[in-house]
Design brief:
The complex is a heterodimer of chains A (264) and B (787). By secondary structure, chain A is of the alpha+beta class. Chain A has 2 domains: 46 residues, Uridine Diphospho-n-acetylenolpyruvylglucosamine Reductase, domain 2; 205 residues, Uridine Diphospho-n-acetylenolpyruvylglucosamine Reductase, domain 3 (2-Layer Sandwich), CATH 3.30.465.10. Chain A has 12 helices and 14 strands. Chain B has 3 domains: 197 residues, Alpha-Beta Complex (Aldehyde Oxidoreductase, domain 3); 324 residues, Aldehyde Oxidoreductase, domain 4; 146 residues, Aldehyde oxidase/xanthine dehydrogenase, molybdopterin binding domain (Aldehyde Oxidoreductase, domain 4). In chain B, a hairpin with a 2-residue loop joins strand 22 and strand 23. Chain B is globular, with a radius of gyration of 27 Å. The chains are: A alpha+beta (264), B alpha+beta (787). At the A-B interface, helix 12 of A face helix 4 and helix 20 of B. The structure holds flavin-adenine dinucleotide. The site of flavin-adenine dinucleotide has 31 residues of chain A, from strand 2, helix 2, helix 6 and helix 7.
Chain lengths: 264, 787
């Protein structure tokens, strides 16, 4: 690991102003992505501004039809939340399937979506449920937030503070884990929202998480696993690697969408 | 009698320190004034090294030295060698390319070291290593045998035209061809044995200290065989003569073969310690382990088996192409030859077997022995052939095997090995009963109702362990003898130290070796200490690999115990005024049979050392040594039955039942043996379904971390049903065969046979990932649609 300067922020404004004053600083949340990258000498931030101790970012609240999860809430916190379990059980099941207990104890929702790993689970939740990403300066709909692999709409120095999830009528998540990393090889969030059926797919697409309009249409007409399985996905849009061909991933999208419906 | 002798489930003595974090590993060693090494490694698979600019690195904080390959060879450090010579069909010797511990003019795989930085701290060494500027001229690369064989393929070593290392054969070609030509049925398959990374939990590490005042070196290192390391470092690499080099392999956290060899890093640490007059430490990162630990397997074979009209095997012919990587590692040449093709008769009575093997250089890390070493490749080949042949012949796969079993011993195969004992049908019966093969079709129907495809597969493996008779392996090309040595020291207070050349790195020798002594002298294992792993303490030894520590290492101890026992009886007979023949050792005493005359065990020890009253002419002391050279290989064998369920929607395979019936001969500690079988099967399941070391066409390692290299996790493996049906090995005094590799050897074909049975398609290679299984299922549906 290269030398870096660590700073523990006490508030959102403390964190953003601190980061603004650094040469090439980065926010640090659970460190489950950033620290391994630094240990492999693939990242060398001059400063780390730790946001995981900011109390205001660690709340989960349910207000009417909106579930708000603070950016520094850990995956374990979400997985164990009875409020979330009541409002959006699919989110609990998604969070409890991320990594292993150690990862879930440290990793945060803010870090996960800011990182936007193409195989991460939370981006599918945000996109599939039609969430709104709250930052220190604005609110961004999920449809505009996830731009491409490891790319988001976040500006330089902009900080995620919370994610607002509208409560769906029904939602289910199904994940096919990569055998080695156990990140999503294909993860599908399917939801009946106030604005119609939304289906988001992570792990499989060439450009990261995406909405699957053919599946949305099919499930909008008939909310069933069979309807999902009947929808084909173009293999040309899918990733291929040593774990699976693009044809296989395209096939799995249908299967996992069906299982997401079954889980809803 | 103590209840800690042979056959007792004694808890492992070493576990207290391991599970309380008190183990002492190489990286725990801290020497005064210790510096750290960081290697500058090639990012290219094949390139000429045009120049190395170390000036920026040398100027950095804490940097003691930056050293390169020209300095190393200039100081007379010898090239790394392969210690087993193989002769090609045409009588020519193998083409061994030069391997310098630091590359001089050319790099041949990603990770090949070109320079080393020695600095005060690890971080400073790493930072400076990044500042070393190497000017590479990139050359085209090959990463597998099929590419290396091609006309016009990049030439990796000048003295190996066409990248061919050797073209070797075993068995009788003409007779095998004739037998196959006259066969009633033949089965032919192309079979790939996937390349694996070894992944011991503890990465490799070395701490070298040069003492200028004594001209003496000490090396702490992660070795399965510290004496062999010292021998090679002295005799071939010219680091120091043996009496000026002490090698210590303290606690070692797993080896699986990867820690047999002497790697560039240990040589460089020793040499750099002399250059800088400081202790030099290096510990591999996990990334370096993936890139530089010798890989395993990597065969591509074509095989044909012929049967007569009664389904008896008449001939078996195999061609194998093996990838040995960029350089020849210490035992690399023996793995796809004498450790592989000599087992191609399997458990079967086959009159004609012929195998030829071509080995090639590729721009990948060297390939050498990995748990099983050659024998898993043989078992996988034969056992897939048998299962496939049974399907083609329309007969029960277990019964086809049974019909062809070797039943009389000794049995001379056409490929050198002479099997000494076994009851293959007994293992088959035991496994079939435990696996309830009779109930399989009902289980299959029930699974089908749940939408799952259920399949069952057999594997009847045999392997050769207890390597090996020195004269025999010498005649086959080995550069060393494969005996083992032991020394038994009875202290004046009666406690016992056993010095052994067998190294323990997870096997539990500190417990099982003590049980052997406990059995012999009826003493608690707490009174017995096993000493190993230090060339200054232990006389000599060939180390631990090839499941040899029981059959060979314990046999040496047993021989030394014979001598101690004889002397104890002489002393006691003298003191107690009885005949030696009437002396018995029992319950902590040495007694005269049928009388109440007795000495305490400790009193005999004391008598030997006070020497006040010893028989006329007897030397004082109670310490005996022995060397044991085995008379034959040993032949562990068994039957594994695997049952799987495949989800046709996703291609995911679940192993629902795994049954093992092994013949390991005498078992010292069933708990430890079961642990070995469990771990071995887990590795075999890893090979069959999960693990794959993959290079792209340019020689970049794609599976360079656990994000992509899939190690078996607890939820990937089932609860095993393990049982034993043993025959005694006639070849050694304890009747032992060995158990360390069986699980990894026997399990892969059982798993693949079960999956191919479930999906109805034999076109499946390891690792049978969900993606591959699904693709094979697609072929089945496409074929059905076409009908
Ligand atoms: C072994 C292992 C297994 C894993 N398995 C999975 C899995 O199955 N599924 C999955 O989805 N993930 C998985 N992860 C990743 C894990 O979920 C991480 O928690 C997540 O990717 C990053 O969250 P973090 O809080 O650790 O962020 P960090 O690692 O601390 O930061 C990640 C990035 O986000 C930035 N960042 C952090 N917080 C903010 C913020 N509030 N605003 C703006 N930018 C911010 C950082 O600057 C950094 O660039 C795994 C990780 C490990 C180590």
């Amino acid at each position: 690991m290269y030398d870096t300067t660590y700073y523990r922020a006490s508030s959102v404004s403390d964190a953003t102003s601190k980061l603004a004053g650094t040469e090439d600083g980065k926010f640090l949340a659970g460190g489950q992505t950033l620290i391994p990258t630094m240990k492999q000498r693939l990242a060398a931030p001059s400063d780390l501004v730790d946001v995981s101790g900011i109390d205001a970012l660690k709340n989960i609240s349910v207000d009417g039809d909106t579930v708000t999860i603070g950016a520094a809430c850990t995956h374990a916190q979400v997985a164990g939340s009875s409020e979330v379990a009541q409002a959006i059980p699919a989110l609990v099941s998604l969070a409890s399937g991320i990594g292993d207990p150690a990862v879930r104890a440290r990793g945060t929702i803010g870090g996960s979506i800011a990182n936007n790993d193409p195989a991460a689970d939370y981006p599918a939740a945000c996109l599939g449920l039609g969430a709104t990403i709250v930052t220190d300066s604005r609110e961004v709909p999920a449809d505009e937030f996830f731009v491409g692999m490891f790319e988001t709409a976040l500006e330089e120095g902009e900080m995620v503070t919370a994610v607002k999830f509208p409560k769906p009528a029904k939602a289910g998540y199904a994940k096919f884990p990569n055998p080695a990393s156990r990140y999503a090889m294909v993860g599908v969030m399917a939801a009946q929202t106030a604005n119609g059926v939304r289906v988001a797919v992570t792990g499989a697409g060439n450009d990261g998480v995406f909405r699957h309009s053919a599946l949305e249409e099919a499930l909008g007409a008939n909310w069933s696993a069979d309807a999902a399985q009947g929808v084909s996905t173009d293999a040309a849009d899918m990733m291929a690697d040593i774990h699976g061909s693009s044809e296989y991933r395209a096939h799995l999208v249908g299967v996992m969408a069906g299982r997401a419906v079954d889980n809803s | 009698m103590t209840d800690q002798g042979i056959g007792a489930r004694v808890l492992r003595k070493e576990d207290k320190r391991f599970i309380t974090g008190k183990g002492k590993y190489t990286d725990d060693i801290v020497q005064p004034n210790q510096a750290y090494a960081a290697f500058v490694r090639s990012p290219h698979a094949h390139a000429n090294v045009k120049s190395i600019d170390t000036s920026a690195a040398e100027a950095m904080d804490g940097v003691e030295a930056v050293l390169n390959g020209h300095q190393l060879t200039g100081d007379g450090i010898g090239n790394i060698i392969c210690g087993w010579g193989i002769t090609s069909k045409d009588g020519s010797p193998m083409n061994m390319g030069a391997w310098s511990a630091l590359a001089t003019d050319k790099v041949r795989y990603v990770g090949d070291a070109v320079a080393v930085v020695i600095a005060d701290s690890k971080a400073q060494a790493q930072a400076a290593a990044e500042a070393v500027m190497v000017d590479y001229e990139i050359l085209p690369a090959t990463s597998n045998v099929l590419a290396s064989m091609k006309e016009g393929a990049p030439q990796i070593h000048e003295n190996a035209p066409g990248n061919l290392i050797f073209d070797w054969e075993i068995g009788n070609k003409d007779e095998t061809d004739a037998a196959l030509a006259s066969a009633h049925h033949t089965t032919t398959m192309e079979i790939t044995n996937n390349r694996l990374s070894p992944n011991p939990m503890e990465p490799r590490s070395a701490v070298a200290t040069f003492d200028e005042s004594e001209d003496h070196y000490t090396l702490y290192t992660t070795s399965q065989n510290p004496h062999v390391a010292r021998l090679v470092l002295s005799a071939f690499y010219n680091v120091a003569p043996e009496h000026k080099l002490r090698v210590i392999a303290p606690d070692v956290g797993g080896g699986f073969g990867a820690k047999i060899y002497i790697y560039p890093e240990e040589i460089v640490c020793l040499w750099a310690s002399m250059k800088t007059n400081r202790s030099v430490k290096w510990t591999s990162t996990r990334s370096e382990a993936f890139l530089t630990d010798a890989h395993g397997r990597d065969h591509v074979s074509t095989a044909t088996m012929g049967f007569d009209a009664d389904n008896n095997i008449v001939g078996f012919k195999i061609n194998t192409k093996a990838n040995l990587g960029a350089y020849m590692s210490l035992f690399s040449s023996s793995v796809p030859t004498y450790l592989y093709a000599t087992l191609l008769s399997g458990q079967y009575n086959i009159a004609n077997v012929y195998c030829d093997v071509q080995t090639y250089y590729t721009n990948t890390v060297p390939v050498d022995a990995y748990r099983g070493a050659g024998r898993p490749e043989a078992a996988y080949l034969i056992e897939r052939m048998m299962e496939t042949a049974a399907r083609e012949l329309g007969v029960d796969p277990g019964e086809l095997r049974r019909q062809n079993f070797v039943r009389e011993f000794p049995h001379q195969t056409p490929v050198i090995m002479a099997y000494d004992s076994g009851d293959f049908a007994g293992n088959l019966d035991q496994a079939k009963a435990a696996a309830d093969v009779a109930g399989f079709s009902a289980r299959k129907e029930e699974a089908a109702r749940r939408g799952k495809l259920r399949g069952l597969g057999y594997s009847n493996y045999i392997e050769a362990c207890g390597i090996a008779p020195s004269a025999a392996v010498g005649s086959l090309g080995a550069g060393v003898g494969l005996w083992e040595s032991a020394e038994v020291r009875v202290n004046p207070v009666g406690t016992i130290e056993i010095l052994t050349g067998s190294h323990s790195h997870g096997q539990g020798h500190e417990t099982t070796f003590a049980q052997l002594v406990s059995e012999r002298f009826d003493l608690p294992t707490d009174n017995i200490q096993i000493v190993h792993g230090d060339t200054d303490k232990v006389q000599f030894g060939m180390g631990t690999y090839g499941s040899r520590s029981g059959a060979v290492g314990m046999s040496a101890i047993s021989k030394a115990l014979d001598k101690v026992e004889a002397k104890v009886k002489k002393i006691a007979a003298h003191v107690l005024e009885a005949s030696e023949d009437d002396i018995v050792i029992e319950g902590g005493e040495v007694k005269v049979k049928g009388t109440d005359k007795a000495m305490g065990w400790h009193e005999v020890g004391l008598s030997a050392y006070t020497a006040h009253n010893l028989p006329e002419g007897m030397e004082p002391g109670l310490k005996e040594g022995a060397f044991y050279d085995p008379t034959n290989f040993t032949f562990p064998a068994g039957c594994y039955i695997c049952e799987v369920e495949v989800d046709p929607q996703t291609g995911v395979t679940e192993i629902v039942q795994f049954t093992a019936s092994d013949d390991f001969g005498t078992i010292i500690n069933p708990m430890i043996v079961e642990g070995q079988v469990h771990g071995g099967i887990a590795q075999g399941i890893g090979q069959a379904m999960l693990e794959h070391a993959v290079y792209d066409d340019d020689g970049q390692l794609l599976s360079g971390s656990y994000m992509d290299y899939c190690m078996p996790r607890a939820d990937d493996v089932p609860n095993y049903t393990v049982s034993h049906h043993s025959t005694t090995c006639p070849g050694n005094p304890l009747g032992m065969k060995g158990c360390g590799e069986a699980g990894a050897i026997g399990s892969p074909p059982a798993v693949i046979n079960a999956i191919t049975d479930a999906i109805g398609n034999n076109n499946l290679s390891m690792p049978a990932t969900p993606s591959r299984v699904w693709a094979a299922l697609q072929q089945v549906s496409a074929a059905q649609a076409a009908e």
